[in-house]
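Weekly puzzle thread! Below is a chain. First person to post its structure in token form gets bragging rights.
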Amino acid sequence: MTMIDIYNEIENGERISKVECIELLKKGDFLKLGELAGKICFKKHPKRVVTFILDTNINYTNVCYARCSFCAFYRNKTDKDTYTLSIDELKSKIKDAEKKGVTTALIQGGLNPDLPYSYYLDLVSELSKSSVYVHAFSPPEIDLMSKISKKSIKEVFSDLNQAGLKTMPGGGAEILSEPVRSKISPKKINTERWLEIMEEAHNLGIKTTATMMFGHIETDEDIAEHLENIRSLQDKTGGFSAFIAWDFKKENNELGKQVTKTVSGIDYLKIVAVSRIYLDNFDNIQASWASQGKDVGEVALHFGANDMGSMLVEENVMRQAGFRAESTTKEIASIIKKAGFKPALRTTDYKIIDYL
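Winning reply:
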């Protein structure tokens, strides 16, 4: 099958295979992929509205036993600069966020086995009393909660749901391909477990996002495997609200010493386009301007993205890796308008709050 044949399949609205996805990643014409992805996005979002959210990322602890080679954020529990926020400290951060007009708090932390199960339930219960929406945890954290509590994943989600948890971010995915995970995060849950936890969340009505971190030791085949895994689960549950890809940051981590390649804006935009094409059952693809910069984020809106992600009032993980992007609501709205779209603030579940 030639590239022209694959392009024609996409034009005709046909679902492409994993093998064809690999061909697009290896040989796809950059501008053609952008054109195809843009058309698909317009069919899904004909009103040309591009959304974003005003949120903050709060990391409740930097203690983590997984010690992933790509992470600059984690600390061993014996390190001098470790921290674990109390529930009262978290409540104080939420109050500060409220004052700034933040609508959502994305709350995640390291895998700290010394935290009791009650901590996580209290976190959700107490923070959910504010006007800020709590979007918390990730599959590795849920797995840890299951081990600590000696409860099943279903029981853990049931407890969290009763405490107030309605949605969960898609962290801890990195690349859902075992040859890669076994090298960059061997102590973290494997692909099968990540998918199992996400499926259980979806079955209980907890919507999640799906993420991917690329630009390190993965191959095009690994990226296609990742996309196939989440597309297959989406076919089964329909529980993913969005897909977000970002590039690996080399600074201040072990993996960065091994990686020689650098992800360019073109590399990133190609991933966005292929994701939009391959993930035909996902409504929302995010442009990660906080990872690649605002100019690339703007162009991504013409390569299949329909969402500009978040304002990141507080962000710690990428900052530890030497990368920090900042913006304002007015600036993001201006970027969206400049690209020819209508900006709108949204909720975590992609409901429009206000047009700007």
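Puzzle host: Confirmed. Bonus trivia for everyone else. Residues 220-237 form the longest helix (18 residues).
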